Amino acid sequence: MSAEAVVARPKPGILERVRAWLANPWAQPRGLAVFTWLYIAWSLIPVAIAVQFSFNAGRSRSTWQGFSLRWYISDPDLSVLHDPSLRLSLLQSLRLAGLTMLVATPIGVALAIGLARWRGRAAQAANFLMLFPLVTPEIVMGVSLFLVFTYLYDFIPLGTWAQFIGHVTFSISFVVVIIRGRLFAIGRDYEEAAMDLGASQTEALRRVLLPMLAPAIFASFMIVFALSIDDFVISQFLSTGAETITIPVRLYSTARLAPSPALNALASLMLFATLIAITLAGLFLRVARRRQAARGGSAVQDLAKLEF
Question: pTM of the entire structure?
């Protein structure tokens, strides 16, 4: 076949491409791809619609009436910024998420290092007990914490502090899982090399191990923030009044009784905060992996430059 004939050959049309795709001569698992995309669409389209109507100019939650920030900041009475109940819920969720992030992450890092370095008969049992909150149904956790703060530790009143302790309780296990994964990837070679160069165990931990754990620690901060701001069951069981109602509890209690696009706006803010936290965690871990891969084996050489 001449070069002119190849150039003059017409491109296949849409029907031809679809027919060729359906023919599937190489027997690729395209049905799985189609099913996956259908599931993703089924999961995300309702969320996208809810976010869309949070920017609706009118009160309708089914008819689009134009783009507006009315339900976020513009409406003088019903927007998230000006409605006291919605504003309190937003502030309470952010307060709990911030406090939980600052407390649960350091505790989880310390526990992960201790469990990873622990050698003994009780180590396996301790590791299992540390991960037990991950497999415990949240409703059981919520009821248990409610009974504990009501009948056992009654000096801690229900409300913000009880919610804070409850969030810390179930968040620590997630931090332990993330940090231990990073610890197993690092190994003990760098710590042992630092101690061979004269560092004490504490110096090796502070100047070698913790900097290498920094990406996982930052990811743990973001994951704990996302888990806390999304929590419903524990926040509901340990709340006492309007001042301790979080965003998920507010959405549950008012979505059926007094539907308003302001609720869509409040849910969208929670969704945006969660997505930002998860995205930052993923990006930080990705950048850290690229830097580690680019540096190669120079980490051991860098240890020799440290003065212990």
Answer: 0.79
